[in-house]
Write a structure and sequence with these properties.
two-stranded antiparallel ribbon, mainly alpha, single chain, globular
Length: about 150
């Protein structure tokens, strides 16, 4: 079975990067995975702080996508790793949604995006679905940690 989700609304909204499930990394509180992910695009502390302090994940995303800001040069190589860290910490530190994720069993998880083909499946269902793949990997990692 395949689980499809999109956005932070509804019963599967907890899977989304915009879901309101904060976490700490290195003593810094991130309101959402989106806040964390977008802030990691930059080495400039002031830009990172603007993103971390953004009121909403949409605002964090808008700042992070501003083409006038100096993106770190190694971003393309590191972006999947940062997304993995954010998703992992979100589910590690929020036990209620950790259980929901684990309860998905071995189902494939797909972010059913309407535009993007990288993080989700895209409108033609031929995207790479890296976000869904990371969710499945995090689920397996958490399951192994709990079992050991």
């Amino acid at each position: 079975m395949t689980i499809y989700f999109y956005k932070e609304f509804g019963p599967l909204g907890y899977l989304a990067s915009y879901s309101n499930h904060g976490f700490y990394i290195d003593g810094i509180y991130y309101k959402t995975v989106e806040h964390y992910y977008q802030s990691q695009k930059f080495l400039d502390n002031k830009i990172q702080e603007r993103i971390i302090n953004a009121e909403t994940p949409k605002e964090a995303s808008n700042i992070g996508r501003d083409k006038n800001l100096p993106l770190r040069q190694d971003w393309e190589k590191l972006k999947n790793s940062f997304m993995h860290v954010g998703i992992y910490e979100k589910f590690k530190q929020n036990k209620d949604i950790q259980k929901l994720l684990l309860d998905t069993g071995d189902c494939e998880i797909v972010e059913e995006t309407t535009k993007g083909n990288y993080w989700g499946c895209g409108p033609l269902k031929d995207g790479t679905n890296y976000f869904g793949k990371i969710l499945c990997k995090v689920r397996e990692e958490l399951r192994k940690e709990i079992e050991s």
